[in-house]
UniProtKB/TrEMBL annotation:
Species in which this protein is naturally found: Myotis brandtii (Brandt's bat)
Name of the protein in question: Zinc finger MYND domain-containing protein 10
This protein's record includes keyword Translocase: no
Gene Ontology cellular component annotations, sorted alphabetically: apical plasma membrane; centriolar satellite; dynein axonemal particle
Record carries keyword Membrane: yes
Subunit and partners: Interacts (via C-terminus) with DNAAF11 (via CS domain); this interaction stabilizes DNAAF11 at the protein level. Interacts (via C-terminus) with DNAL1; this interaction stabilizes DNAL1 at the protein level. Interacts with DNAAF4, HSPA8, IQUB, RUVBL2 and DYNTL5.
Molecular function GO labels: zinc ion binding
Record-linked Pfam families: zf-MYND
A single GO BP: motile cilium assembly
Length: 439
């Protein structure tokens, strides 16, 4: 493992062995919280190992013990909880929690899992070890990217409002902001799945190319580029968990997320297995030919393989579109989402009320104990080591050396910037800070 170890090899093995699936009713419970803490430690250790380039034992352990399907199942379970139970909790008139951090941890669970999957799916054996759940993962990524395209059509992700709002409303805002980052992680995971296109099952290929028409969805992502925006006349890109201003000299450089889209398109359009399965209808042809405008010499210099894609598009422009295929195909379908929905249909309100009483209304003593465990899990030295770069001021983007004293999460270069940014930061800061201070 890396020089900075959060987990000893024996500890990591024990935590991976213990990973299991939880019913939706147990989301946020004591045992569920313990597994969430274990996942966070595995997540941070996996990033440390990948950064140090000294082997990646977490990835090896997950494959050896067959836990990738478990992670995919948990990912989709918490996604369903957020869609079906969380909105009900927010509407319950008798639910006015003093501390919303226990609910925030459930919302954050999805981000933790997708981040871990992004780290380990770089290796093809991880995708292969997902077995049948790769179908469920492809569907999950498609849902996230579809929402990302829809969000880009409505404008920027929501910003925190300055006026006083209820804690649950603040939590809803945080969940929406978190959803944007989760979708970007899902894009990277999907790209890694396309790297394995030569070993995917026919059902998975059909799901990606026929059911979801992922090549056309990826074209829409390139058109909208939701990870880029203009702010005050300056180009900004979303990297490392925040919007960063791009220097004029760097604006022709391909962003990491643009690169993920181009590689996924290359895999889906030029691999022999995918080309044999993808029907180039008139609609698909029209969408794909939009890529020609993006394929500049500067772009191809940065990713030379795209010259092959440029040649493919030149040939496609002269070819006749294919009629839609009407073959009778027997294929597998994803099971996790449908199974969870079937098992819990009609129980969402009862589930929300049960969790209100037994999970999300902890005593002061329980909150203190939980806060101690959170402090042990989120060690500052480890958090700084896994950060993608030196911290930047949340207000002016200059290099920062001072933390918010309340939540210890946000960085600032000076007191003046912290004061100016407080109205925006307070919505994220207070729930976190309350987790360590029980009133």
């Amino acid at each position: 493992m890396s020089d900075l170890e959060l987990l000893l090899p024996g500890e990591a093995d024990m935590l991976v062995r213990g990973l299991r699936s939880f019913p939706l009713l147990e989301m946020g419970s004591g045992r569920w919280n313990q597994q969430h803490e274990h996942l966070e430690k595995l997540n941070m250790q996996a990033i440390l190992d990948a950064t140090a380039s000294q082997g990646e034992p977490i990835q090896e352990l997950l494959v050896t013990h067959g836990k990738i399907p478990t992670l995919v199942g948990e990912l989709i379970a918490v996604e369903m909880w957020k869609q079906k139970v969380f909105p009900v909790l927010c509407k319950l008139e008798d639910f006015k929690p003093q501390n919303t951090f226990p609910i925030y941890m459930v919302l954050h669970h999805e981000a933790s899992i997708i981040n871990l999957l992004e780290t380990v799916f770089f290796h093809k054996e991880v995708c292969e070890s997902a077995e049948d759940t790769v179908l469920d993962l492809v569907d999950y990524c498609h849902r996230k990217l579809t929402l990302l395209v829809a969000q880009s059509g409505r404008g920027e992700p929501p910003e925190e409002e300055a006026e006083d709002v209820s804690p649950m409303k603040e939590l809803q805002t945080q969940a929406e902001l978190m959803e944007f980052e989760i979708a970007l992680k899902a894009l990277s995971v999907l790209r890694y799945v396309t790297d394995c296109v030569d070993s995917l099952s026919l059902s998975t290929l059909s799901r990606m190319l026929s059911t979801h028409n992922l090549p056309c969805l990826l074209v829409e992502l390139l058109e909208h580029s939701p990870w880029s925006r203009r702010e005050g006349g300056k180009l900004q890109q979303f990297e490392g968990g925040r919007w960063q201003t791009v220097a004029p000299s760097e604006q022709q450089k391909m962003s990491k997320l643009d690169g993920q889209v181009w590689i996924a398109l290359y895999n889906l359009l030029l691999s022999p297995e995918a080309r044999a399965r993808y029907c180039l209808t008139s609609f698909a042809k029209g969408q794909l030919l939009k890529l020609q405008a993006f394929l500049t010499d500067t772009l191809i210099d940065q990713l030379p393989h795209l010259a092959d894609l440029q040649g493919f598009l030149a040939h496609l422009a002269l070819a006749e579109p294919q009629p839609p295929k009407k073959d009778l195909v027997f294929e597998q379908i994803p099971e996790i989402w449908e199974r969870l929905e079937r098992e819990n249909k009609g129980k969402w309100k009862a589930m929300a009320k049960h969790q209100l009483q037994h999970v999300f209304s902890p005593s002061e003593q329980d909150l203190r104990l939980q806060a101690q465990r959170w402090a042990e899990t989120y060690r500052l030295d480890v958090l700084e080591a896994v950060a993608p770069e030196r911290p930047r001021c949340a207000y002016c983007s200059a290099e920062a050396s001072k933390r918010c004293s309340r939540c210890q999460n946000e960085w600032y270069c000076c007191r003046e910037c912290q004061v100016k940014h407080w109205e925006k930061h307070r919505k994220a800061c207070l729930p976190v800070a309350q987790g360590g201070r029980v009133k």
